Every structure is written in C-alpha cells, then in structure tokens.
Here is the input.
Amino acid sequence: MKAKILFLVLTLSCINNAPAANTMLSPNENVLVNYIDKHKKDQLKLLENLVNINSGTGNSPGVEKVGERVRTELDDLGFKTQWVNLPVSMKHAGSLVATHSGPGKKILIIGHLDTVFPSSSPFQSFTISPDQLSATGPGVIDDKGGIVAILYVLKALNQGGKLKNANITIVLTGDEEQAAKPTSISRKALREAAQGSDIALGFEFSLAENQLVTGRRGLSEWYLSGSGKSGHSSQIFQTASGDGAIYEAARVLNSFRTTLSNIPGLTLNPGIILGGQSVNEDTQKNIGNASGQKTIIAAQTFVHGDLRFLSDEQKRMAEQKMREITMTPLPLTSSQLIFNNIMPAMPETNANRQLLTEFSDISVALGGASLQAVSAAERGGADISYIAQYVVASIDGLGPWGKGAHSQNETLEVTSLPEVTKRAAIFISRQLN
Here is the structure.
C-alpha cells in the first residue's frame, strides 16, 4: 500500500513539474514554445560564442568568422547557403544568404553580423550578471541577439515539423552599422532577395518588450560649400569686401533651423563645419582641417550634415526649401548644396500594422504585453529600409530587448531572448498553415 501511495505522489509531482500547455495556443504551437524553453540555455551559450568573436564592421575576417559559425547552423537545418562578397575595394564583408524553398508565402528574414566595436575596442567579451538576468557584450542585442533568435526560431520550426514546408530567405549583412557605398552594390543581395517576398521580418533589437517597428525614417547626407571674397578683416561688410564665407554659412544654417526644425519627423543636423582660407574634409576618416587667420575674411566654408525623413515626399520638400535658402546669399558670397541618398524610408503602412496586430495577439497568448508601434522618429534606419518598397508587409525590432546599444553598456535582458524567439516562431508557423 505504501508503495502505491509513493507511486501516486511521484506521478502527481511529475505532472505538476511538466510544462503547462497554453490553452490560447494550438498543440503545435505549444510544441514550439516547449522546445524554445527547453533549449534557452543552449541559445544563450551560442550567443556568448558569437559575441566573443569581434566583428566590428571594419574587421572583415571577424565578420566572416561569425558568418561561418552561423552558416554551419543553417546548413544543418537544410538551408542552401552562400556568401555574396563585395568588391575588395569596399573593404567590407559581404552578406550571408540562406534559402529554404517551399510552398506558400515567401518570408524574408533580415539581420546583420557586424557590430560598431572595432578590434581595438576594450569592450570585447560576453559577461552575464550574477543573478543571470542580464548579459553585456558587443552586439549582445545589436545584432547577435537577433541572430540567435533567428536560429532558434528555425530550430523550433524544424522540431515541430513546420520548417519542411517553409519558403524562407535569410540575409545577414556584414556591414549594417556602416554600409559600404554605393549601397546599390552593398545592398544588392538584400534587394534581390526581397523581390517577390510577401513578408519581411527584421531582427534588429527592440527598445522595450511591448514595442515593434512598423516604420523607419530614411537618411540622406548633404554638403554645403560656400565662398566669399578674401580680404583684410577691417573691411568686412563693406561694399567692396562683402560679408565673408563664414557669415554666409551661418546665415544658411540658421535659416535651415528656423524653417525646418518644427516639422514632425524631419531632422537635419550639421555634423561638421569648416571655415577659413582653405578647407578640406576626409569623409572616410571623418576628420577635416581648415586654415586661415582671424585678420582675414574667410574665403571658404564646408558643412557636412544628415537629413532624416518619414517619406520621400517629406525629403523632397526639405531639399527644395534648403536649396531656396541658398539662393539669397549675403553680399559677395555664394552657397552650393549637394545631396546624396543613403537609405530610403520604411513607410508605415496598413499591411505593416496588420503584422503588428498579429504579433501582439501572439504576445498576449504567451502571457506577455500587447504590442505597440514605436514612433519612426525614435528609431534610425536599418537594412529593412532598403527593401520595404519591394515587400507587401514589413516589421522590425523583432530581436530581444535591453539597453545601451552602440555603447560599452550594451546589455541584454536575458528573459527577452526566448520570449522574442517564441513570438517569431509562432508567427512564422501560422504563415505556413
């Protein structure tokens, strides 16, 4: 009798300790959730391995080493993988592209292998906190956390028998943090992969557990050069001498500020300014030099800035107003303005918002928060912006959340890693039904 009682107690204990099925999810979806929960330590260990490989954008061998480690995982899952290299002159790693053919919707998954931390950075290693709740390291959220989320989404789908029917293309770029120019070359593989895609999923990090990205601002750069009549400073403002190049640059910049600073979603920033008798900027090294004297009216100025915008229409409006401002120079001065496109906007659309609703429903089913769209003005550009125009619906910020991206305080909230993995696995699974 005692043996029977003991058996009953042990049986009930095992039942109580087994993962509880979520009644808001289907049995197949619970299989995905249970797999991710069971392997969350393995997922975190893989993240540690990737973070401990330096892959600053300028460290092409390191970027490629991370890519080869990821490539092994994708090969094992049945993906066809290839490196799409960039010309040697660009000095950046290319993109790792993986494809899995299947029926139904074509899903494009986007991430990146590089970080902002060069080989010389003192910030090189993965460190987990004593309570195991947070981890720091270069790329721990941006974007190696996103990469391991992608891999374990695929592993879970494979375990659940869903991957065999998936039509998925993955593009992991090697220089998202500082895209090689021209982007017509460095983002060619990404654009080609986007052709015909129904859904694009970006695994950039999230700002918070209840936010995703349905729109991103675009980015361009502008160069303002000015000239004035050189002469002795005692004659400035006189009819024969004019106002000088520096005053002209100041007039233009202040007019930019007063005319365009209050337009929602639009920002323009003069990042570097040079003035004197001669000026020069090295755009590759982000340095410049100017020469002149306080007693000589400035003959040249140069300003290099960026422009961020919500739409192509807003961009065109801003550029036109900026050009108009340069057309009324101060006496005996002139200003010239050149624009260079860098990254298009990812406009917020109804289709993008529908993806947000679907992810929000999944989050709630998992016991989490309902999800909201973060303002496009709060996020910079990302690789998904290059291809949003080619895809029916796009959403970004699907990676884990934390804080301190691009700083030596970059920190992952550890519990967010399996959480975002579950969300994405269930979402893709539903697209395959």
Residues 60-76 form the longest helix (17 residues).
